[in-house]
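Readers of this paper often ask what the protein records in our data store actually look like. Such a record has a labelled line for the sequence and another for the backbone structure tokens. The tokens are whole numbers drawn from a learned vocabulary of local backbone shapes. We quote a single record here, exactly as it is kept in our systems:
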Amino acid sequence: MKTNFLLNIIIGFLFTSCVAQNERIENLIMDCAYQSFADNGIAYKKQISDYENLLIDEKILIDNSGQSYRQLLMDIADEEEFDKVPSKFFVVELQKIEKPNSEEAQKCKEIIVKDSAKYDMTKLKGFEHVIDKGQYSGNFQPASIAKGLLKVLTEKDLELDFYKLRTFLLFSIIDTNSGMNKQLSDFESDQTEVDLTKALRITLDDKNQIFVNEKKVSLDDLKKLVREYESELKSESVILWKTDRATMYRNYIDVQNAIVGEIQYLRNKLAIEKYKTEFDKLTDEQQSEIKNIYPKRIIE
């Protein structure tokens, strides 16, 4: 797995805003992110709240306080490898909501960056320094990142959605071999014999270029090809995914989200067509039926 950091994973979501100047810049960033959605961020805010509740229900967080988030960072920092992997990952859950208006968000970002001298940038710069240090030193272990963040962020800081989100994203590099692969693929639990001659072969090279069956494609092309492939082969589908050691983590996550997002889209579409409700609201038996039709067989 590639480990540059998660500040880039949802860069399309977390931009900047031009509202009241007496607020913390982190809040302005979140306001801008909300405003870039057609619904003013209603679904996005709900996604954040729902994921926080998931972590509480699974006893990864005690509650929604900044103290609880700081304790979580302390737990991660104290262990060589944090083993409390949530049942869902926030980056995957984001696929369920409508994407923001990137052009509007970019304009908003430019405004706040221009006015950034008016705000206290100490914590934000400190946060970015921890991330950059981990990214460029190659020491991108969760414990190392958590230790760095603990030196920068107080309980009060961790009450802000801006930093809560980034704590969510830490889980995408925690126990990646077991946690993320379980999220990406149902393959291990699937006893169906797989015909690899029918596999869709996706490659992300050392220059972060995407290839599907040896043909170079854009990220949008990839999404279309994955959807078409899964729609056609259904239960016989299998994706072989190969990445280079030099692949940037941001690009790795973009491809990952594209693959998982298209499969989730098809599952949700079928659930609504067949049961008149979203996939996540189905019974275990109904979900199993949908999964058999659109399995996540992703071999990396």
Residues 249-275 form the longest helix (27 residues).
